[in-house]
Write a structure and sequence with these properties.
Helix content is 39%, strand content 17%. By secondary structure, it is an alpha/beta fold. It has one domain: NAD(P)-binding Rossmann-like Domain (Rossmann fold, 3-Layer(aba) Sandwich), CATH 3.40.50.720. Helix 1 packs across helix 5, helix 6 packs parallel to helix 10 and helix 7 packs across helix 8. It is globular. The chain starts with a strand and ends with a helix.
Length: 297
C-alpha cells in the first residue's frame, strides 16, 4: 500500500482515480487548493503558497491540477491563465518536493497529446518531436517543469492523455445531447485522427505507472486510433442515433473560436501508446466501441 497525494482531485479524472486507488488498497490524500486561513487547504498555485508539511511522508504524487483547455474561448487572457495554471502550479509543486527531507519515489504529472500538434496521419509515439502551436508550447513548458523532479532523484512520468471518454464530463458529455437529438455528425471532413481513452483505463494507467519501471513521457491513449468520422459512427451506433449531419468548419469556429477549433476539434493526432504496449499493459477497452459502451453503461 502506498500513500498517494493527488492535486486536482475534484476534476473528472481525479474523481475516478481516487476510488480506484482506494479500492486497490492505497491511502489517498487530496491536495486541496485554498489559502492558509483554511485548515483543510494545502496549497495555492496562484499565490505560490504551499503548507509546510503537507506532503510529508507521501510515497507518490499525482499532479492533475490545471485550468480547462476548452472550457472557454481562447482570449489572450484565457490562454495566459491556462499556461500559468500548468507551468506555475507544477513549478510550485516540484519546488515543494525538492524541499522535503524524504522525497516521494515517483511524480506522475499530467500532460496531453496536444504536445504533438496536428500531424495528419503520421504515427506518433513518445519519441516523436513536439508540434507547433499554443498547445504544444503549453505541454513543452508543463513537462519541463515536472521533469525537474528527476534532477533530485524522483522518478518522473509525464502522462500525455488523449480525449477521456466518460459520460460524467469532458468532451463526450458535451457531445451526448446533440447526438441524442440526431444532430451529431463528423467534424469538418472527418479525416482527423481522434486520440481517445476510456476513463476506466486511464485510472488503470495511473496505477500501472506508479510501480512500473517507466519514466519520462507516456502516451495515455487507446491502442487502436480512429478518425473523427469513425468515432462519430461508433458514438451514433452506441446511442442508436443517426449521424448524418456533418458540422462545417465555419460553424465550429463561430461557436468555439479559431484557436480551439484548429488545435483541439480539428487537430489530427494518430497517437500510439508505445511505452504502455512495450511494458505489457493490457487495456480493458481496446476499441473505441468498447470504450463508448463502458462509458455509457
Amino acid at each position: 500500500m502506498a500513500r498517494i497525494a493527488i492535486t486536482g482531485s475534484s476534476g473528472l479524472i481525479g474523481g475516478a482515480l481516487q476510488p480506484h486507488l482506494l479500492g486497490a488498497g492505497h491511502d489517498v490524500i487530496r491536495v486541496r487548493r485554498g489559502n492558509d486561513s483554511d485548515p483543510s487547504a494545502m496549497w495555492n498555485p496562484a499565490t505560490g503558497w504551499f503548507r509546510e508539511g503537507a506532503l510529508d511522508g507521501v510515497d507518490a504524487v499525482i499532479h492533475l491540477a490545471g485550468a480547462g483547455i476548452a472550457d472557454k474561448r481562447w482570449s489572450e487572457s484565457r490562454k495566459q491563465e491556462i499556461l500559468d495554471s500548468r507551468v506555475n502550479g507544477t513549478r510550485l509543486l516540484v519546488d515543494h518536493l525538492a524541499s522535503l527531507t524524504k522525497k516521494p519515489s515517483v511524480l506522475i504529472s499530467s500532460s496531453a497529446v496536444g504536445y504533438y500538434g496536428s500531424r495528419g496521419d503520421e504515427t506518433l509515439t513518445e519519441a516523436s518531436a513536439p508540434g507547433r502551436g499554443f498547445l504544444p508550447e503549453i505541454c513543452i513548458a508543463w513537462e519541463r517543469e515536472a521533469m525537474r523532479a528527476a534532477e533530485f532523484g524522483v522518478r518522473t512520468v509525464t502522462l500525455r492523455t488523449g480525449v477521456v471518454l466518460a459520460k460524467e464530463g469532458g468532451a463526450l458529455a458535451k457531445m451526448l445531447l446533440p447526438f441524442k437529438l440526431g444532430m451529431g455528425g463528423r467534424l469538418g471532413d472527418g479525416k482527423a485522427y481522434f486520440p481517445w481513452i476510456s476513463l476506466h483505463d486511464l485510472a488503470r494507467v495511473f496505477e500501472y505507472v506508479l510501480t512500473a519501471d517507466v519514466r519520462g513521457p507516456v502516451n495515455a491513449v487507446g491502442p487502436k486510433p480512429v478518425t473523427n468520422a469513425e468515432f462519430t459512427k461508433a458514438l451514433g451506433k452506441a446511442i442508436h442515433r443517426p449521424t448524418l449531419l456533418p458540422v462545417p468548419t465555419t460553424g465550429l469556429k463561430l461557436l468555439y473560436g479559431t484557436g480551439i477549433t484548429n488545435e483541439t476539434l480539428l487537430s489530427s493526432q494518430r497517437v500510439i501508446p508505445a511505452v504502455l504496449q512495450e511494458g505489457g499493459f493490457r487495456f480493458g477497452q481496446e476499441t473505441v466501441a468498447e470504450a463508448l459502451e463502458a462509458a455509457l453503461a
